[in-house]
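pls ignore typos typing on phone
norvaline + seq
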Amino acid sequence: MEISPHGVAAVLSSIKGGDFLSSADLTADQTNAILDLATQLKNGDRRIDLGNRVLGLIFTKASTRTRVSFQVAMARLGGQTVDLNPQVTQLGRGEPLEDTARVLSRFCDVLAVRTFAQKELEQYAKWASIPVVNALTDLEHPCQALADFLTIQETFGSLSGQTLAYIGDGNNVAHSLMICGALLGVNVKIGTPNGFEPLPDVVEHARAIAKPNTSIELSNDPKEAVKEATAIYTDVWASMGQEEEQAQREKAFKNFCLDKELLCCASSEAIVLHCLPAHRGEEISSEVMESSKSRIFDQAENRLHVQQALLAALLGGL
Ligand code: CP
Ligand code: NVA
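k done
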């Protein structure tokens, strides 16, 4: 159920000034409120001007969607972005993170960090005196999950009773989908080859916070995993930093391609999602990617709307 602008502001006032390092950093109500605010912003029912605030982007890995959607979100909020690529800052020459985070806190109002270790992101959050947002780590991709569930909500009108099947590697994207799905009452089934399951701690955490009657299940059989799913999701088999494992992973994942045959095992209403970038012919067939079932580009667009909502909430502009 959609909440009024006043209700959204009341729920989100509690996250002002906080960090967003994991999908678990928001409660179910706060997550729903971010999705509602994102919808209001997307539909033009709400305009928010934060008055020239500055977002610093510290990206140690490549990015198209996350980088650009954060830049555009900040511009639409009346603010600006500075791109602090570690290659061109003193970070690349060994300046300690704790010094960098404290200095940037004197210039910027919020930081979005994309890096490898979650611990490094946590260090930024520890030393920065401004909100820090996870723009992808090896453990989680929480901004992505917000956009993914907004896309499912837009398609079906409601998240309740939906089942999301994620097929492929039990990676950062799978982790955030499990946690965020658990909070929102969406059943999540993760289908991976043996040995590529999500981390047991994350599965346990998702199950512990799941809404009543919401299941978080694992399977090593892709056809079984997609049975009755209303959204089928996949991601690359080798994430950034795992490029050397590509050949070995192609073998292990060969039965996990999201193709027409696999799609036929899901609900007839099922939509197809992918966080992108995609490797056509590997984790997803070109036919499925270009089919009428695909909501992949709506999903990419929704990165902008959820991040605009998130930044407005963290910066207290509601
Ligand atoms: N989905 C996603 O995070 O894309 P980028 O790596 O291009 O930011
Ligand atoms: N799992 C992928 C997601 C990219 C958006 C990676 O970490 O490379």
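Residues 63-66, 136, 144, 275-276 surround phosphoric acid mono(formamide)ester (ligand 1) (CB under 6 Å). The radius of gyration is 19 Å. more later
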